[in-house]
């Protein structure tokens, strides 16, 4: 409360006759005082009214001895002019200065010290951060300057396309999506000094998104099953046939390459099935895993039995058989299902003789 009162009292002393001087930190400023005749010089005084300090009386400075030549100096330029010069001003030098002749104010100067922007705090402290998809994030930039600064946030995606997304010190995103990855830059500007900026690169992590290409012509050899996996970080990929892990061997070859899908870094894994003495029927599963989870997709590769029924009984039996083989194609093969299929084939053969 006392500090506020002092500032208020000093402010009410400013008037329209005060000359306004503006200087950046480190510059020199001069306050000139003009008077009528040389005999008045002993009654002249300079005051820093903002602090209440009397700086000089006559030609004598009332300062610490170490500051008389390094920071402030009285300069008499003529018989009716006396200057007070401050070298390399700092923030404490700002305020109202007056030149007095006894109780009469001869001149007054309002000194505004311009301070270029500087960051006083920001979050996060690291230049690059990673957060899981769905989590919240707070980015902040706090800067000080005189005149005060405006904070603007610029977002840049991976293609370097940018847009202004916010004006203010803080950004809060309640639920991150994978599309929120990119560079977030806060820019501080006060219109008088060079702008300053701070950038944060945000990586949104997410579990694997797995997709197998279902449009495969199994009549084309070798058979190629393609799987697309997108995730951050990249995933470990495995292939399975009927639940059994597939490794590179004589009849199975796995090739994995990096690809770009919708501006995302992804992987393409291709399982190549070469001809073998026994067809490699079954369910093929592409599985990917990172620390956020594991996901998979599958496709079924099975034989198709083509018969040409000659009677109504054959047609009925064939309908049963096709329905059963369709069930086989939609689930893992089992001995029980194979046995049922074998029995139906026997029934069909018997019907041929009826």
UniProtKB/TrEMBL annotation:
Q: What is this protein called?
A: Ig-like domain-containing protein
Q: Which PROSITE patterns match?
A: IG_LIKE
Sequence intervals crossing the membrane: 333-353
Gene Ontology, cellular component aspect: neuron projection
Task: Please tell me the species this chain comes from.
Answer: Adineta steineri
Question: InterPro entries of this UniProt entry?
Answer: Ig-like_dom, Ig-like_dom_sf, Ig-like_fold, Ig_sub, Ig_sub2, Neural/epithelial_adhesion
Q: Which residues form the signal peptide?
A: 1-17
Sorted UniProt keywords: Disulfide bond, Immunoglobulin domain, Membrane, Repeat, Signal, Transmembrane, Transmembrane helix
Domain of life according to the entry: Eukaryota
Residues of the Ig-like domain:
117-197, 208-290
